[in-house]
Write a structure and sequence with these properties.
Blueprint: H1 3-41, E1 46-49, H2 53-66, E2 78-80, H3 85-94, H4 102-108, E3 114-118, H5 125-136, E4 140-146, H6 150-155, E5 161-165, H7 170-193
Parallel strand pairs: 1-2, 1-3, 3-4, 4-5
C-alpha cells in the first residue's frame, strides 16, 4: 500500500470537490451571509444543529461567532444546540432522539432568528424536526447538506437557503461544509466591520 499516494489522493479529491462547488454555491453562500448578518443586526440569533461531525461544525461555527473569527469585533449571538448534554439526554430519554434539537428550537427560537441545519445526507430525522420547529416559529433556515439534499432539500421554503455540496462522499461534504462555515464567518465580519478586501 502506497500511503503517500493515498494521502495525496485525499488532498486532490478535497480540493476538486471545493472547486466543483464554488460556481454553484458562491451566490447562495453570499445570500446566507446577508441573511445571518441582517438577523444579528436586528437583534436575532443563530441556532445551529447537526450530528457527529456536523455537531462539531455547529460548535465550531458558534465559537467563531461568539468569540471571533479573524478580526476583533463584538460578540455575536449564536448557540450550538449540540452541546448541552443534560438537555440532549433528557429529551432523548423522555421523548425521542429526533426531538433533541426541535425542543431547543421551540424553547429558544423566535421569528427573525436563523436556524443553521447541517446534515451531510439531508436525511437526519432530528435535523428535519428542528427545521419543522423553526418553520413553526417563523425562522428562516439555512441548510448545509450534500449528495442530492435528501428530505431536507424537499422541505425547505422559498425564504430558506440550501447550501448543497455536489458530492457523495461524507468526508468531502464535511470538508466543504467547514469551508462554507469559514466563508460565512468571514462574510459576516466583512459586512459588520466594513472590510473590503
Amino acid at each position: 500500500m502506497d500511503l503517500i499516494a493515498r494521502v495525496s489522493r485525499h488532498f486532490e479529491e478535497s480540493a476538486q470537490t471545493k472547486l466543483n462547488a464554488v460556481e454553484m454555491l458562491a451566490a447562495p453562500i453570499a445570500a446566507a451571509i446577508e441573511t445571518c448578518t441582517q438577523s444579528l443586526v436586528n437583534g436575532g440569533k443563530i441556532l445551529i444543529c447537526g450530528n457527529g461531525g456536523s455537531a462539531a461544525d455547529a460548535q465550531h461555527f458558534a465559537a467563531e461567532l461568539v468569540g471571533r473569527f479573524e478580526a476583533e469585533r463584538q460578540e455575536l449571538a449564536a448557540i450550538a444546540l449540540t452541546t448541552d448534554t443534560s438537555i440532549l439526554t433528557a429529551v432523548a430519554n423522555d421523548y425521542a432522539f429526533n426531538q433533541i434539537f426541535a425542543r431547543q428550537v421551540r424553547a429558544l427560537g423566535h421569528g427573525g432568528d436563523i436556524l443553521i441545519a447541517i446534515s451531510t445526507s439531508g436525511n437526519s430525522p432530528n435535523v428535519i424536526e428542528a427545521i419543522q420547529a423553526a418553520h413553526e416559529a417563523d425562522m428562516r433556515v439555512i441548510a448545509l447538506t450534500g449528495r442530492e439534499g435528501g428530505r431536507i432539500g424537499d422541505m425547505l421554503r422559498d425564504a430558506d437557503l440550501h447550501l448543497c455540496v455536489p458530492a457523495n462522499r461524507t468526508a468531502r461534504i464535511q470538508e466543504t461544509h467547514l469551508l462554507i462555515i469559514h466563508c460565512l464567518c468571514d462574510g459576516i465580519d466583512s459586512l459588520l466591520l466594513g472590510v473590503e478586501e
